[in-house]
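Might I ask for a little of your time on a matter of protein folding? What I wish to show you is a protein chain and, alongside it, a tokenised description of its three-dimensional fold. I should value your view on which stretches of the chain appear to form regular backbone elements. You will find the record immediately after this paragraph:
***
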Amino acid sequence: MSCKIAPSLLAANFGCLREEINRVNDSEADWLHIDVMDGVFVPNISFGFPVMEYIKELSKKPLDVHLMITDPAKFINEVKDSGAYIMNVHYEACLHLHRTIQQIKECGMKAAVTLNPHTPVILLEDIIRDVDMVLIMSVNPGFGGQKFIENSIEKVSRLKELILRKNSSALIEVDGGINLETGKKIVDAGADVLVAGNSVFRASDPVEMISKLKML
């Protein structure tokens, strides 16, 4: 069974956004990964809900929305209205994570939680059966094009063990420095979904690269 691929729109050329999204539409990609940054939780700003409304109109792929913002629970309804299939919030940004996960599900979206590189997977032990997916950041969040953190491979393995031990159905997603080499290591460790930015949108043939990643 091939892994799911979620190209990260953060790496796209926003000067020709329609064309970039159409490339993803024409590919074997499963989702389109959308990073929303507020310049507070992470040291960068990306785009907000008006742009996401435009993306929703163009994308034929389900939207995997990753909120790198403080207090993401305040924007659950806006994320839903922007067309998100899955809403991803950071463990580090949620004071009441269980409540936030339940509210996301009540809005009809899949619920996911993200862990920064320094956050251990054991902290999810009491909630792993409640989430649909866990995103492991394999770079420090905020900027694309960073070097892959090798410890992420062991982290994925530990998360897989936790999921199996707790009889959870949560998927494992990994984001940061993903290419054909690192992607293979991550998939072998137990990942189900790969988020790929530069390796896709900077490729000479993004559609072909997505196909190669999907077969890892």
Summary: The longest strand covers residues 84-90. The mean pLDDT is 93.
